[in-house]
Design brief:
Structural class: alpha/beta
Distance between the termini: 27 Å
Oligomer: single chain
Strand order of the largest sheet: 3-2-1-4-5-6
Strand content: 5-15%
Number of strands: 6
């Protein structure tokens, strides 16, 4: 529209690549929890890592906050371009245990998590599709790259001291997350229709 396109000529179809997430919605959560050696009776907090410039500082801040929360299980899902060495170094340095995962897909990790987190990855959208609570970290003075809070499907954390109270509220307080759960439901209702929408637009264009 900013470039002069007529609004009526634009059709919002959705992102076809997200249609495939439907296959993960009904996975056996307990199977993967057991496979990874996690405790189903304790909260699972996952972090979708990214090879960003502030990666080390961000992970140190996350671990500092998590140390204040008893019984939480921390899972780090590596980005395809990461080998886990940086994460292992920081965990050892801070004397903190976490499970580092690379081969299992991000939607599955989100599905087994009580809360999923990221900085700016679209895996946050995947978490919403998996009906998993989402928090995201922005410790910088820059605007959110993906404004999950403005979208109504995530909660922003920008201070280390906020990690404990926000996570405990997300995990334990249904009233705190009521609106997010509602927004997430609306978001996931579009799952599986993007490719169909694209096909319909193509048919219309070629006159079928």
């Amino acid at each position: 529209i900013k470039d002069g396109k007529i609004p009526e000529s634009i059709v919002v179809t959705g992102q076809p690549s997200f249609d495939q997430l439907k296959q993960y919605v009904d996975i056996d959560r307990n199977y993967y929890i057991e496979k990874l050696g996690l405790n189903p009776d304790k909260p699972i907090f996952s972090f979708m890592s990214q090879p960003l410039g502030d990666r080390e500082d961000t992970l140190r801040k996350i671990v500092t906050g998590l140390k204040e929360i008893p019984n939480i299980q921390f899972v780090i899902k590596l980005h395809p371009n990461e080998d886990g060495n940086v994460q292992r170094m920081i965990l050892e340095e801070m004397n903190y245990n976490a499970l580092i995962v690379k081969e299992i897909s991000a939607p599955i990790i989100s599905k087994i998590s009580t809360v999923t987190s990221t900085v700016s990855s679209t895996t946050g959208l995947e978490a919403a599709c998996m009906d998993t609570h989402l928090v995201y970290f922005n410790f910088s003075d820059k605007p959110d790259f993906v404004p999950y809070q403005d979208m109504g499907i995530g909660i922003r954390i920008d201070k280390v001291e906020d990690i404990k109270p926000i996570l405990e509220s997300v995990i334990n307080d249904k009233e705190f997350t009521k609106n997010i759960v509602h927004n997430r439901k609306e978001f996931t209702e579009s799952l599986g229709i993007a490719a169909k929408n694209v096909a319909e637009v193509i048919k219309e264009v070629i006159g079928e």
